[in-house]
Write a structure and sequence with these properties.
Radius of gyration: 24 Å
Number of helices: 19
Structural class: alpha/beta
Number of strands: 11
Strand content: 5-15%
Shape: globular
Distance between the termini: 68 Å
Largest sheet: 5 strands, parallel
Length: 477
Amino acid sequence: MARRFDAFVLFAEMRTGSNYLEESLNDFPDINCLGEVYNPTFLGHHNTFEMLGYDMDLRERDPLGLLDTILKETDGLPGFRLFHDHDDRVVERILPDPRIAKVILTRNPLDSYVSRKIASATGQWRLTDMKHAKTAQIRFDPPEFSDLLDRLLAFQGRLRRGLQTTGQTPFVIRYEDINDADVLNGLAAFLGSDHRVEKASKKLKKQNPSALRDKVENYDEMVAEISDLDRFGLEKSPELEPERSAQVRNFVAHPTLGLLFCPIKGAPENAVLEWMGALDDVGPAALLRKMNQKHLRQWMKDHPGFRSFAILRHPVARAYTAFNRFILPDDRPAYADPRKILRQRYKVPIPEKAPGETWSEEDQKAAFLGFIGFLKGNLDGQTSVRVDQAWATQTAILQGIAPVVLPQAVIHEERLGDALPALAREIGVDAVPDVAEESLPGPYRLKAIYDGKIEQQLIDTYRRDYVGFGFPRWNRR
């Protein structure tokens, strides 16, 4: 009998139990799950860098060729695990294909986050015997969790829409059910297997069975931070978490005045928040942040005549900000994998650790040029690294903000000193403070390394922003 599917993909995330589920699926003789085939740092499984004639470099150049090889040369029904930060080119290929089955593994993202932090702290990512178990108590980081959740929700929304618009039905399985033999047999039947198992794999063990309160040192702070999220059904995994804008939590509203700031990552932010906090002497800590859409709509109703605004930064300065803030340092966990890939696969000349005292202007310029060279392919969808908000086009970011609230003022950084006070006066503020200048991060000033080659490469990369927002060359602004 002909196969129902040619292959399957297991959509999951780190610490959702995907290793365990893979072990159980591979107990079925006619199913062959190959691991994280498109993990940015290995190929299939940890410390493995070759598969079916493909090494890491060839996979980067031809990810779909590897997919075709898997389909042709794998015994049994081939499958692999795919996470939100794996190769987007593969997602584009497989999502609309009804011959590739979609299995979606879900887990409460808070549990996954805590489990991931503990694994990072202990270095233990798999457990086969409880006598080797390592434990740690971690500290909940609200911005880190918020950024992770935003990325997950955006990806899950994309999966949901892709399946809906192509008429496909996925098999959704919860973390709590991966040890249930009946559910596993149902999954096997969905995939077209003729075999059944009596029990799930017992090779891997649950690593952190204790309560969250015992695993998180700032538990009460964590509960306070996520209290709003729970009202949206954070634990209702089968629906892939509730739909909400990834941008709303980044908005900043003034508590007493009608000013709403819609930040663009990599553009001025701290100076704007200091200025907003000085209005009405409320202080930056009193500004309203981490709102959901209900809170935002209520704030809008409470502040008729409000002004919403976003700040643009010149593409050269913004790329330099992204490089110095997220790629050059080695202390940004969310960017550890992209940093490693840029250094190893794209030969961006950055050191393994943060630059030391011997790091020169020449080193800085060479590394920045290497980063710029990567950006164009990344924005064109030609790399496996995610297009991060820190270096996505400002045009695309504003298009993402617009469905929630269209900024009434889009201000170039060079005009902040005049434009922000003018907005404040429009809403009736008389005593308007000055806006401080926000310096760019980095060991060397942009002016020290800038030249026409840098500009021209960024014009080619950010042409939408240059044309759409009328940016001149950076040295002529």
